[in-house]
Amino acid sequence: MRMLALVTDGFGGAGGIARFNQDLLQACSELDEIDEVVVLPRYGDTEHQSLPQKVQQLPPQPSRLGYVTGALKAVRHAGPFDVVFCGHLYQAPLAAILAKIGGGALWLQLHGIEAWMGPSRLCRWAAERAALVSAVSRYTRRRFLAWAMVTPERVRVLPNTVHDRFQPGPKPQSLLGRYGLEGKRILLTVGRLAAAEQYKGHDKVIGALPALLGEFPDLRYLIAGSGDDAERLRGLARSLGVEQQVQFLGDVDDKELVEVYHLADAYVMPSTGEGFGIVFLEAAACGIPVVGGNRDGSLDALVNGQLGAAVDPDDQASLVRAIVHAVESGRRPNAYLSRFSRSNFYGQVQRMVQLIDNPERVLSV
Asked: Is there a contact between 39 and 5 (Cβ–Cβ < 8 Å)?
C-alpha cells in the first residue's frame, strides 16, 4: 500500500497537530501493510531532521495555490496512491479529488473545533466521501456525526500518544534562576496565544489568580507560547493587579520543553474548544497534576477526570478549588497514562490501515 499524506504540519513542525501527524506517519512507516508514505506539508522543515524509513517529505507549500500545485505534481510524478490521508478537514476537498483521480481511498483526520459545526458544502461533500474518518476524541467524533451523513462505523477515535521523553524530574535549577522562580509555586500552561484560540482558557487562570494568591502568596503563573493574543492577556493581568505573578515565556524550544514542564507544581488549561489536549498527557507523564475543562475534547485526555481534574471553566470557584488541590497533592505517577502508550497508538493505526485495505471488515469503535 502506498500513501499520500496531505497535512498542515509535517516533520519539522511544532505544536499538537504536528506531533500527532508525526506520530501517525511514523506508525504507518513501521507497518508491513505500508510500502511508502509521501508527505506534502504546508509547514515543516526537515533540513536538520532524519525521516522514518519509507517516508518521503516534499518541500512545504504554505500558500494555497502552491499547495494545490504541489499536490497535483505529487500525484502525477509519484503516484498512483492507494490511500490519500487528509490531515485536516479544510484540506478534504483537495484530498477527495486526488483520491478520486487516482482511484485510492480517502482517510480523513479530525482534530477538534474545525469539525464541530457544519462546514462549507464542499468540505461536507468531501468528508462524506471518506472511506475512513479518525477523530482525536469521542467529543469530536460525536460533533462530526451530528452534521455529516456518514455511517458511525466509518468514524473511529484515534487519540494522541505521549512520547517516552516526557518523564518525571526535579525542578531544573537553571530555569528557576533564569526566570527568578526559586522558592515559588508554579502553574503552567503551554499553547499558542492566538486570538482565534482564546478558548484555551489562559484568561480563566489569570482571573483566578487573586483568589489563588490568598492560598499561595508565592504563586507564579507561567505561560509558554506566543501569538497575537498575548497583549490582551497582559492587559487582563494588569487590570487584576497580578501582572507580577504572570510570566510570559514566549515560544519554548522543543528540546527544553520537558524541563519547562518540570518547573510546574500544576498544569492548568481550562479550555472550552480543545479537540484533545496532548499537553495534558505530557504534563501528567512528567508527574505534574493537571487541571482541564469538562466541556470539550479535554475529557478524553483527562480520562473523564481520572488522569486529572475536569472542571467547568466558567465556574471560577470550582477552578480555584481544583488548582489548590492539584498544587497541594504534589507530583506522582499516573496509572491512566498507559492507555495513551506508543504501543496502543501503533496498534490502533494498524487496525485503521487494515480497515482501509478491507472496507468490509467490521471493527469495534
From this structure: yes
